[in-house]
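At this stage, I put together a protein sequence along with its fold in token form, as given directly below:
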Amino acid sequence: MGDWWQRNIMEPGKLPLLLALGAFVLTFVITRVITRLIRAGKGPFGNVKAGGVHIHHVVPGIVLTVVGGFGAVAGGRHGFGSALAAVVFGVGAGLVLDEFALILHLDDVYWTEAGRQSVEVVAVTAALVGLLLAGFTPFGVDGMSEDELQGRANVIATVAGNFFFSLLALAKGKARLAIFGVIVPLVALIGAVRLARPDSLWARRFYGRRPRARARARLRAYHHDRRWSGPRRAFQDWIGGRPDPDRR
């Protein structure tokens, strides 16, 4: 265990990333618990106001993110300062992305359908950082054998190929597959070879004169959304709370 920790966490300089991820996830969980208690009118918590203005937690989040980011740049990759900056950055990022939908819409949509975007962004961010930690960095490890060096070179080539397939997946309107595909090769390949979504850039460019391809794309998108929208909404509700009903 000690050798694995040294070679995969300490030597590649991943400890700050691990600390930032832990602070990010913990901050998001605590924030959601507190906001749900405020919404239910339970506990000692309440909205923060100054001069009649509701101070959203994205405000201290931005401050902490800036402080942590500049602290990390100034402190380098090692030492207590780097670890502290990583924790501060993770806390700030958790507060900011918990209100990602508010920033995107420039409106207080925290407990609306649009507010689900915050939960989705946080989940994707945590998953991506977790994948980076679970894998290994092809740079920065000393004392490798010839076989290990060859393996690292193969990884670099694979990452370049994955990036190409991820761009194809993104052009086909499969943003989640494109993001995860940068790290997981099979995901990028799946997104690149499957039919594009009907509203994607790829569909507008290559399906314009192919009515059968357009029809297949619409049918596949309909079945996919019908199958997965329910479980995805249930997952988001479990993490972030059920949105208020639309009264319009």
Notes: Residues 136-144 have pLDDT under 50 and may be disordered. The longest helix spans residues 211-240. The chain has eleven helices and two strands. The beta strands are 49-50, 53-54.
